[in-house]
Design goal:
The protein is mainly alpha-helical. Helix content is 72%, strand content 0%.
Length: 374
């Protein structure tokens, strides 16, 4: 008969399974489980994409039917033109926004803030300006949310000019601005805006870096040192990346849709009630003062791309010059007054003034250039 082994004492301090789940120590899914989740999410995504396509293709007919058959508005009336504009552009922009934000959300899962800091730190300044401006495309869409990353970059030892290239590019040249411009004005205007916005961000950051104004950064920012002792976060699975895309849609579209609706409502009013060609005398290429006036008017305003692009669409329809409208849009997004207030906690007044002056000069050059060549 085999000898009985003594009972081992219970470890009362070890957490049970439910405690591990509540504490975030849930066992990692197996490869097969993760593959099953991925297959289900991809299948759902394909179905949603098909539904998205059919709905997008039907928008013009649905808006026309709702305006004239459901609401019974008269053909050719100002109100009818405004309502049809609003009913068509609002779902169109939101559908485009959801699709592109999902894709960029998946892309962002490859670019964590820590990884971005490591990529930018230690680079030559010229190359760093280009890289920082490009990284701004896939990072926060709002200047106010880009400031914390700006602080982190300075603390990680990224050169000042490079951080400014990122700060200018992040709110001005992002997926929301590009997709809205593409959806409302076509790929040529979207490409022009993206190219000139990146050029302004790169050139402004390069100039600010060459001026050697590090002493005008607040001392507490310069005293920050990046913590390199933390463990690298594990790479998410593809199922996790798809989930990150869905979360980006919920987060970003959930925040900006009121701006989209408000901007399209303003644009619809301009579309329906402002006579053709009226704005040509005020914002046309023949009025040389229209570009600086647009920049001065745009700076005190605060809006992100979601709110201002529909207004830009309506202004162009009514005869405003492309260069003037681009200058107005860039000044609203990249040089907003709330951004200056937030930056004051990080930068001293002289550096804020140089930042506004250099970026403003770049925007003016863009406006005058496109009013001449287009």
């Amino acid at each position: 008969m085999s000898e009985l082994k003594p009972l081992q004492p219970l470890d009362l301090g070890a957490p049970c399974a439910c405690q591990r789940v509540q504490a975030g120590q849930e066992p990692q899914p197996t490869v097969l489980e993760d593959r099953g989740v991925l297959v289900r999410r991809v299948g759902l995504g394909v179905l949603l994409l098909v539904a998205w396509w059919f709905l997008y293709q039907s928008l013009a007919g649905l808006a026309h039917f709702a305006t004239y058959s459901v609401l019974g508005l008269a053909q050719g009336a100002h109100l009818a033109a405004s309502v049809e504009f609003f009913l068509y552009d609002t779902p169109k922009v939101l559908l485009l926004l959801a699709l592109v934000v999902f894709g960029v959300g998946v892309l962002r899962s490859f670019f964590t803030p820590e990884r971005t800091r490591r990529v930018l730190a230690g680079r030559s300044e010229a190359f760093g300006n280009v890289l920082a401006a490009l990284l701004g495309i896939v990072t926060p869409f709002c200047s106010c949310s880009a400031v914390p990353l700006f602080i982190g970059f300075l603390g990680a030892g990224v050169p000042l000019g490079v951080t400014f290239s990122f700060l200018i590019s992040a709110p001005m040249v992002n997926e929301i601005a590009v997709v809205l411009l593409y959806g409302l004005l076509g790929w040529k205007v979207a490409a022009i805006y993206m190219g000139t916005g990146l050029a302004v961000a790169m050139a402004s950051g390069f100039v600010i870096g060459k001026l050697g104004m590090e002493r005008h950064v607040e001392d507490w920012v310069l005293n920050i040192r990046a913590t390199n002792g933390g463990e690298e976060a594990p790479e998410p699975s593809w199922a996790g990346r798809l989930e990150a895309g869905a979360m980006a849609v919920r987060d970003i579209v959930g925040k900006v849709w009121p701006w989209v609706v408000a901007g399209i409502a303003v644009g619809a009013g301009i579309h329906g009630y402002v006579p053709e060609g009226v704005l040509a005398s005020v914002m046309g290429r023949g009025a040389w003062w229209s570009v600086p006036a647009a920049v001065v008017i745009g700076i005190p305003m605060y809006s992100n791309a979601a709110g201002i692009v529909p207004v830009v669409h309506a202004l162009l329809e009514k005869g405003a010059a492309l260069g003037t409208v681009l200058a107005f849009m860039m000044s609203v997004i990249a040089l907003s007054l709330p951004e200056m207030v937030i930056l004051r906690r990080v930068l001293k007044p002289r550096l804020i003034g140089v930042f506004a002056g250099v970026v403003g000069l770049g925007i003016l050059l863009v406006g005058f250039l496109f009013n001449v060549i287009l």
